[in-house]
Amino acid sequence: MNQVKSSLPTNLPEVIYTPDSHLRKPGKLIRDMFSDLAKSKELAWRLFMRNISAMYRQTMLGYFWAFLPPIATTLVWVFLNSQKIVSMGDTRIPYPVYVMIGTLLWQVFLDALNSPLRLVTSSKAMLAKVNFPREALIIAGIYEVFFNLLIRAVLFIIILICFKVAVPLTFLFAPIGILSLIMLGLMFGILLTPLGILYQDFGKGIMIITSLWFFLTPIVYPPPTSFPANMITKLNPVSPLLVTTRDWLTIGSVEHLSGFIIVTVITFILTLMGWIFYRISMPHLIARLGA
């Protein structure tokens, strides 16, 4: 009898599924998480390119849609303030610059918050049929956040030139603030994604909550100093990150640095916990999607 050699590869990774919880071996869980994160980069880039192409391909205005939200928001609030319909108080920089930068930073946070649920929802069919690191969807969302940020940075440069606002040396710290805003948005987005997949109410609720959240954040007005408004600002995790980053970009002096540090540290911890929750819950959610 002739011996037939198998042409199948023998070095394929062996995957064993057990009913044991991943939390029983936290060390292995963390190693697998970061291993899959590293493996996700190429796929995440392909997903990012696909999503960006699809997002702007069939639009008349194209990339202008990235500029439209901050421009529209700034024009509305500048008009309301100039006509004394609402009084926003004194700002240390020209009010249009203040609103534009605040709105741009808010949009960074909002993009990061919405990206996990949006990408997972749009990839339901692929998740049910293809086994790939789920972290690729999160990384693709981060790529989109930075892409939109780079486009909108043009508005930041233009408005600084138009109003002749000098940029202080503290602008070098601004990337830290922007990364903190992105991480805060991702933390909320990752924690809400499993619930958003199961119940569409969460996706609709996010839109309502963020609309109210906008007015509770000192984006178009200076941080209040009187009670209870100042307490609301202090309890709002976005406020110290946004205000500090805007101060680094424009005036140099920072008044909420301690709050910035506290929120950033807590956000980092909760983001890691949210990632673990996302990692553990996704197989169960995918099984339900495929049922």
What would you say this structure looks like, in words?
- The chain is mainly α and 291 residues long.
- The chain has one domain (43-290).
- Helices cover 71% and strands 0% of the residues.
- The chain is globular.
- It starts with 25 loop residues before the first helix and ends with a helix.
- The model is unreliable at 1-13 (pLDDT under 50).
N-end to C-end Cα span: 46 Å
Strand content: under 5%
Summing up helix and strand content along with how strands pair, one would put the structural category as mainly alpha
Oligomer: single chain
Total of helices: 11
Number of domains: 1
Helix content: over 70%
How do the helices and strands line up, and which of them pair or pack?
Blueprint: H1 26-39, H2 41-57, H3 64-82, H4 95-122, H5 124-129, H6 135-162, H7 174-198, H8 200-215, H9 229-235, H10 238-250, H11 257-290
Descriptive tags:
291 residues; mainly alpha; 11 helices
In short:
With 291 residues, this protein is an all-alpha fold. The protein is 71% helix and 0% strand.
